[in-house]
Amino acid sequence: xSNSDESVADDVTAExxxxxxxxxxxxxxxxxxxxxxLAAVATIAAGTGxxxxxxxxxxxxxxxxxxxxxxIFRRGAGTFLFDPPAVxxxxxxxxxxxxxxxxxxxxxxxxxxxxxxxxxxxxxxxxELAARLAGLPRVGLGAVVxxxxxxxxxxxxxxxxxxxxxxxxxxxxxxxxxxxLLVDLREKLAELLERDGKFGIAQEEFTSVLGRDFVIVRxxxxxxxxxxxxxxGGRNLAxxxxxxxxxxxxxxxxxxxxxxxxxxxxxxxxxxVLPETKRDLAALKEFTGRASxxxxxxxxxxxxxxxxxxxxxxxxxxxxxxxxxxxxxxKNPDADKRLKAARAAVATLATExxxxxxxxxxxxxxxxxxxxxxxxAARDDIAVMLETLGARAWQIDATAQGIADAFVEASQTxxxxxxxxx
Length: 422
Hints:
About 55% of the residues lie in helices and about 5% in strands. The protein contains 21 helices and 7 strands. The chain is of the alpha/beta class. The termini are far apart.
């Protein structure tokens, strides 16, 4: 081998040594019977320390957001993968470990489907939220594990259809690794939070997450139809509404993600064109999707119902009277000045605390405060309003005075001089 070849080989070896370790794993089994589940519960209860838990859904494939796999790891017990549809209720497991700390990554994504099967933690450590508060630049599980533990987690199965049966072994290994490293990760993040005096802040945030209901109930869910803003006319909107509701009912019936049946763009196209016959609907090239022709009678009936309706939707939803900030300068110049001043103050504070600005205070809370501030807008009055808006104690302590000062500054900012024409 030449010297140059040796040099190249040395460089490759050095790169390999410096690369993150790819976590290996043994074969993984899935618990699918009540008997095996109850045996696992006893083993988990005999373990020590916190409970690491994760859930996999089939978002984008199924209508429901139920868990199709639940993974649990506990020191002294090991790793367990459960098939929730086969197991049924997890009440026995919840009773066995309810008083322990549960570790989840981005708990807000999984708490609803865990609660559906009877798993409801009362003590939480959210590693994604902890990473945000610790000021880490990347907070995805793979990135945080790599940064703090030096282990590379492949994430190629994160968007898989977890309702698939049987689940491939590579998917199960991926799922197992997602929980097996959470306890170590929790310890590293706790050290960072303690070092920076943020552990108390984190505890407030975790408690807040546990107290939230993440099931969103919308007054007019059909208005979330992508592209609906381009539809004009009451009759057209009525057809869009009926098409959306018909698709939603069918998707729920067969437990399939609505967009996999007929995409939003197809419904919007039909609502804009208003085809006169079923044949015209079938001939509409924009009306696509795997169920667009097989369920043509369903969609045509929806169009006819919308056309015959006398209950036309209004062009815009009136559920929220606060306009978007981009028009504040024209509609409410004082509120616009308050918002800009307060945003700058909160952004400065976020930088000083090394916490993302949206975690210091939600943009929605800041907008509502700036649009209709308390009178007088003193620190204590702002603190009361922030509490009403759901801010935690640490957020109020950190931001109330700065926002009050920003509002005073905004009120003293003169209006720009109007241009004059000579």
